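Re: [ENG-882] Designed sequences occasionally contain unexpected residues at chain ends

Forwarding the minimal case from QA. Structure tokens:
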């Protein structure tokens, strides 16, 4: 349970919000491992409800304006983050923790992704954390390109929307 690069935290937050569903502990465990959590990753049935609640809070950051985004992130940080500290537990390289030692996965995800998103928003602006503008998509994304506004999660959604708009005009 650790923080590494800011990119990793943003990816963790975006992918968590974009998960279609969390069917069970095995899927959550796989998700955490895919996102760079070192073993041992033990997930129980009880972790799921909390993680779903964190996901809903994070989605509000992407959906809302900057005032809402800042308010939600400040609430998450106030509730879940602790004073940052360095750790080299289990022989890992020194890294910063912002969640309590032994925090649940939900609490850890809340503290860690809130810090990641807060740092990102401070650097890029909240408009860089957005929901895809394609009508049938709904995925959130973080635009890492400074001064290059983006409306779509992927080039695929941008193209699909452009083609649909074009067809609608022709009709
Ligand atoms: Zn999209």
């Amino acid at each position: 349970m650790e923080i590494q690069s800011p990119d990793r935290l943003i990816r963790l937050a975006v992918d968590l919000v974009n998960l279609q569903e969390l069917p069970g502990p095995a899927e959550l465990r796989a998700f955490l491992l895919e996102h760079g959590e070192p073993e041992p990753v033990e997930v129980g049935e009880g972790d799921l409800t909390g993680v779903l609640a964190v996901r809903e809070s994070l989605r509000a950051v992407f959906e809302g304006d900057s005032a809402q985004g800042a308010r939600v992130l400040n609430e998450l940080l106030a509730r879940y983050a602790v004073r940052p500290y360095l750790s080299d537990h289990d022989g890992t390289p020194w890294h910063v923790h912002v969640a309590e030692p032994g925090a649940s996965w939900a609490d850890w995800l809340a503290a860690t992704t809130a810090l990641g998103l807060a740092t990102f928003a401070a650097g890029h602006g909240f408009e860089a954390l957005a929901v895809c503008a394609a009508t049938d998509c709904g995925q959130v994304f973080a635009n890492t390109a400074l001064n290059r506004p983006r409306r779509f999660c992927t080039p695929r959604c941008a193209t699909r929307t452009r083609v649909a708009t074009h067809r609608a005009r022709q009709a």
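QA comment: On inspection the terminal residues look reasonable. The mean pLDDT is 91. Proposing we downgrade this to a documentation issue.
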